[in-house]
Amino acid sequence: xxxxxxxxxxxxxxxxxxxxxxxxxxxxxxxxxxxxxxxxxxxxxxxxxxxxxxxxxxxxxxxxxxxxxxxxxxxxxxxxxxxxxxxxxxxxxxxxxxxxxxxxxxxxxxxxxxxxxxxxxxxxxxxxxxxxxxxxxxxxxxxxxxxxxxxxxxxxxxxxxxxxxxxxxxxxxxxxxxxxxxxxxxxxxxxxxxxxxxxxxxxxxxxxxxxxxxxxxxxxxxxxxxxxxxxxxxxxxxxxxxxxxxxxxxxxxxxxxxxxxxxxxxxxxxxxxxxxxxxxxxxxxxxxxxxxxxxxxxxxxxxxxx
Length: 306
Fold this sequence. Notes:
It is a single chain. By secondary structure, this protein is an all-alpha fold. Helix content is about 70%, strand content about 0%. Helix 6 packs parallel to helix 8 and helix 11 packs antiparallel against helix 12. The chain is globular.
């Protein structure tokens, strides 16, 4: 007669749990190696991509962010599906969803056939779910994606302020100069958050450089300090300080210390001699400015006086 042996169910489960734990840890360790060494990832791309996709299920926020960056930058079409799943997962961290949307917009123009992706995202930006609309709007913004033009224009008037701002970024990413007049219309009539986003993106219309410079010059006269500051911040990306000395001279008396500070900083770095020759008294007056950064920049110019 064969003796029956009792087996503790808990003991039987333990080896499986240990194996699963070890497997998970190995995946995460290998994933960490790949995100830390781009060379290793490239050398082992065929096995690295599936492993990183698997690691996304177990990684913490920071590792997920790094994995998404690597996949979006160096990977291939097989990553689009998993990236889309993360972007549309309403249980996922919003920051991670946004990172997935960013990488989709990076990979979009590299796809052999992006039609299915575009069609899916166009449905998403019409969703009643504002978070999904937000992420899908960003994901659609890549160079040459003309099919997204009109739907993204409609998002400029979305009920959600985040989406209105993101629509500006996505439209600018299309790199279509025909969009500029529409953005200028929203610059005149949109909300403060949309105006901010537009001003920070206008400089990207390189083919319309002179038109954009004129828009920034007009905004430097705006009654709202935020508009003046945003315009000045981007004005320097298109125009040389030395070519607009009188503009900067006027800004030294602006009521907003941020604007005075940025104006004197650019003069100190790019055109100190021209400033000292043209308006030394205005520079000296800034030594009594209430803002310490403004004082230091003024001293920097005066120290170069011969």
